Amino acid sequence: xxxxxxxxxxxxxxxERMVTDLATLLSTRQISDPVMIGIHTGGVWIAQALxxxxxxxxxxxxxxxxxxxxxxxxxxxxxxVEPSSLPFSVDGxxxxxxxxxxxxxxxxxAALNEIFDYGxxxxxxxxxxxxxxxxxxxxxxxxxxxxxxxxxxxxIKLTGPEPLVLELTPAKQANx
Amino acid sequence: xxxxDIQFDDNGQLRHFLTIEGLKRDTLTEILDTAENFVTIxxxxxxxxxxxxxxxxxxxxxxxxxxxxxxxxxxAKRLSADVMSINIDTSSASKGEDLLDMLxxxxxxxxxxxxxxxxxxxxxxxxxQHVSPHISVINAGDGQHAHPTQGMLDMFTIRKHKKDFxxxxxxxxxxxxxxxxxxxxxxxxxxMGIPEIRVIGPHTLIPPGAESLGVHVYHDMEEGLKDVDxxxxxxxxxERMTGALLPSESEYFHTYGLTQEKLALAKPDAIVMHPGPxxxxxxxxxxxxxxxxxxxxxxxxNGIAVRxxxxxxxxxxxxxxxxxxxxxxxx
Lengths: 176, 331
Fold this sequence. Notes:
Chain A is α/β, with parallel strands linked by helices. Chain A is built from four helices and seven strands, in the order H-E-H-E-H-E-H-E-E-E-E. Chain A has a single domain, classed as Rossmann fold. Chain B is 35% helix and 14% strand. In chain B, the strands form two sheets. In chain B, strands 7-6-5-8-9 form a five-stranded parallel sheet. Chain B has a four-stranded parallel sheet with strand order 2-1-3-4, sandwiched between helices. Chain B is globular and about 55 Å long. The chains are: A alpha/beta (176), B alpha/beta (331). Chain A binds chain B through residues 64, 66-68, 72-86, 113-114, 116-119, and chain B through 13, 30, 33-34, 36-41, 43-46, 48-51, 312-313, 316-319, 322, 326-329, 331.
């Protein structure tokens, strides 16, 4: 049932693909000086690689979207990872927002809300390592290294930061 | 005395925040870590997160307060909750309304949290015992008993400036007897693992048997301040004193007031804290209160983030069954 081969799960190959696609997209849109924001935790790992490869001048930003989640009343407060850090003004910036796996779209909805609480960006590009099935909001990746059709009970997870590995949990083992 | 049990719901999650006594270090650490995340909200153009949108919080202040009430209000507002503060002087009491009747009326307005300050010890516990199951109560100071959010914001401030609690010497100076801040602080310091906690004050203002709280008692300030990393000055609570516990304020200042000379006995990088409001020239001289080692205003700012963390913690309880063991986050 796994659509992908071992080879396409190689994260460094996928990152190269993202770099190429992002470079193309930026030049098509004539964006020369973007800023990049990764979403904790997996998105930050991916963003670190992209940030370096694309030679983005401004330091990398990171978002912890815990305070913007839409399921707070259901899942409560989780222990925190790291605070959000946007070491630049987002006003008028072209932002590349990076996450590891785009699934329901709820994380991105939360991230966009948080970004807009910091200011008004000129544009936001969404880059994800994997865009999987299970969308619940009208949110799509502008750049994704891979698109995967997965069952609802299957989980794909990025572990890292060193090495970055994708783990696919088959439906049988999946719980929670 | 199982008063802390009431703080937890049936799933063992923190429902009320009434006292620090009896809480675990992990719980306190999680609150401090969460507060750390709330500090950066001050950097946002929109200084708000939508976490408690749709929740209603009522501040019930039976005793006057500026700092605590304001920071609780701001904390609620930055979490996007709807908040209102009620100062209960004698007006409702004079109409003969019973406290529980008033609570039930407020509950009927569908609120989710009461933040309670009261001049009587145990008031917040009493209220917590009588509210409906979905309501949380936070103690914003009850009589001489506890002021747990102040204790937490002081721990936050200490951790921010000293990075770590291990190896610290802390001194709490002044009116220990009447101070709920001191009580909450001593519990918090013990739980967080500050190895040496001293209390300094005259015999009349240190409760007998204070050592049983896990502190060293000093009556000589010079001796007590020697080599400490943290100095917590307490306000002389004249309104709670009955009888002649002190000869005079000027004599108190002479013996227990924090001056630059006395502060020089502490470590050179010692921080000076005070829960406010300060009585300049009574327990602390202005040169120290406004000096480079003072973190008194920092405490006030930290109070907002810490109160946000506590409010979101108790209102964001996971429903039964969904409780994952919540200590995966290493910091």
